Amino acid sequence: MSTDKEKTDKKKKEREEVAESLHPETHKGPQKPEHTNQYGNKDKTTRTQK
Question: Which residue stretches belong to region Disordered (predicted)?
Fold first, then answer.
């Protein structure tokens, strides 16, 4: 008979595999796209509001 820890480890591994198949990039951490506005990458310099 398997212990509770073995059961939870197996469930956790299965969940991670499902998540991995849905989002293959998750193991690298969140992939945030670099912010660009209509003027390209000069976000800070194009804002004139103070």
Answer: 1-50
